[in-house]
Amino acid sequence: MDRDLWLQFQHLDLGSALQPLQLSTDTRQRQANENRLSLVVRGLNPTQQNLTWMRNTLPRAWRLHDRVRGQLNDDGTIRFIFDAEHHLLSVIERGPWSFKDWMVVMDPWYRRLYPNYLQTISFWIQIFNLPDEYRNQRVVEDISRRMGQYEGSRLVEPTRDSPSEVWVRVKFNAYEPFYFVRHVQLEEGGPPVLLRFEYQRLKKFCSTCGRLTHDEANCPLAPIPELEPPQEQPDVNQDIDQQVEGQELHEPQQDLNEYDEPIEEIHTTEYFHDVVPPLLNHIRVQPAVTLFGQPGAIVEAGSTSGQESGTKRKAEDPPIDEASPSHRQRISEETDATGLVVALKPPEEP
């Protein structure tokens, strides 16, 4: 808390009433020479142009890496200080320059107070489709001044191997759109002529608006694509139900007389003739002794005796005393000769 308070006290205007400090004459002269030989450079697309890399790369592109030094400024510019003035002028004349395929603007330091400081860029432009009768210095200069600030021109006569060429050097506002075709009214009342312009050493630019400060992906004038509303997904279960219902409604009914025989029309005699005899072949009837000495029969599966093969009769039930049915009991005995025997036990006498 105390530290912040004392830092605030240092912002007081103590000393503002004193006489200004004066630089020495030698320092002023040296500084004036450096400013006169200084070239300030700014990238037109700062998001794609690293200042440190630009400071190290541009002197090599100028082939002056051992005759110039760079200094990064707080405003996003680079100040290059040359050893000789003709080196600085040669860089300006051989422009424009680019870094990372994006253009840069440059101005001498002494123009820092001009209204268009670091706002312009110069190009050599070749003009196409200009009729031969209008290919002269006067017409070319007039067209150039309507495009920007005219700086020079060069007319090349045609030869046997090459056509004629029209070149102009024009300084443009670097932050305004660039155009590559323009209609020019050469004759009053006549049809306009479409001229095409080709910029020498021009690299990346926005193909939507023609500016040098961004690409088409970041253009503010690019139309925003409208997203289509999501389509409703069909209900799969509902479709399946509809398909099943349709099949039930349209499926032809089979002819029962042709394919199937109704259950109630199946003949019972045929059924017993095919099913019952094989089952009876595996049934054995054994005699059993009841309480009253009457022979009975116990049916046991799995027998193959001779008596079984010819006998298909039901075992006789022993006589039952209907007077006292609640006192009857069943007796089960198992012997080696007869197998399992079941008999009724009479009630005990009181």
Structure notes:
The protein is of the alpha+beta class and 350 residues long. The chain folds into three domains: 31-117, RRM (RNA recognition motif) domain (Alpha-Beta Plaits), CATH 3.30.70.330; 120-218, Alpha-Beta Plaits (2-Layer Sandwich), CATH 3.30.70; 280-345, no CATH class. The protein is 25% helix and 26% strand. It is built from nine helices and 14 strands. The strands form four sheets. A five-stranded antiparallel sheet has the order 2-3-1-5-4. Strand 4 (97-99) and strand 5 form a beta hairpin. The longest helix has 15 residues, at 236-250. It is flat, with a radius of gyration of 58 Å. The relative contact order is 0.07. Mean pLDDT is 77; it is low at 254-266, 288-315 and 320-334. Residues 176-220 form the Zinc knuckle CX2CX4HX4C domain. Pfam families: DUF4283 (PF14111), zf-CCHC_4 (PF14392). This is DUF4283 domain-containing protein. It comes from Eutrema salsugineum (Saltwater cress).
